Give the backbone structure.
Amino acid sequence: MLSPSRIPIIDMHCDLLVYLSDVPGSLIDNVNEIGCATPALAQGNVKLQTMAIYCATAPGSTDYARLQAEIFRELAISKQDCLEPVTDITSLRQAMQSESGIGMVAAIENASGFCEEDEPLEDGFRKLEKIIENVERLLYISFTHHMGNRFGGGNMTDRGITRDGKMLLDYLHGRKIAVDLSHTSDALAFDILQHIDQERLDIQVIASHSNFRQVWEHNRNLPDELVQEIIHRKGIIGMNFVRAFVNTEDPEAMLHHILYGFGHGAEEAICFGADYFYFADFPDPTRYPFYFAEHEQAGNSYTYLLGRLQQHLTQEQLEKLAYKNVQRLLERLWS
Ligand SMILES: [Zn+2]
């Protein structure tokens, strides 16, 4: 039986690229500023970390996203801090076997990163191609962030999909890039599923970093109907460590989310999407601390949770949560 600290980890979401592009003096190995700094990823036995290219919906968003894609590319080329780009099934398997390497793959959190509100959609698709050229493999695209954009409503709204949103889905058909429902409104999520079904599009849906609304009421968490849709469509659901989405008072609720998933059909879908980001410049004091102490660092959070879950789950279930569910999805998506 593997000890929890030896189980490999795949994580579906962090904001390391935002930190590196945004914060003066940021350093990829500064464990005091971000929970997913490289020494913490190594200590936590993270074998594949998804790096989000995030931007707000605002003028200049595509420049900002392009900068993050370039930073990703530089990290991939320089291979500093043992970071290795994972772009296909072969490099995925290598990363999972690697002793000291940390695999990384890019994703887009908010489609405003490739298409601004007032530019022709075709120009946006060209910018998307440019990002893909830089990062080589894009794991997923979240259409929106909190408020939404030309493609649809974000998680703080109740707006559904737009005509551009449907065109983006048509564009993604057969492209082997998942669509992430973690920042959509419920209405947009259901509209995305409906359009995929109606047009018989070949698009995988996932929730990269969202917990369960049945456990903690928050619009960033998934209502049960969406949980079941994602399970039914063989997607994955990444458990988010941010206190606001776990339970603002009780750190044990992180375990409740995970066990709820196992108890409600998500055994083949559940995974980690810890959502580490740089928060020292965040204005709202009620959000502090952003993470409970036991979840705040990749160096020990996954190990801690897997250790606590040992009395509830089998070794096989722990491994599904830690990496097997995501690895299986990637091998299917990328084949
Ligand atoms: Zn997010």
Observations:
- The chain has one domain: 7-333.
- The chain has twelve helices and eleven strands.
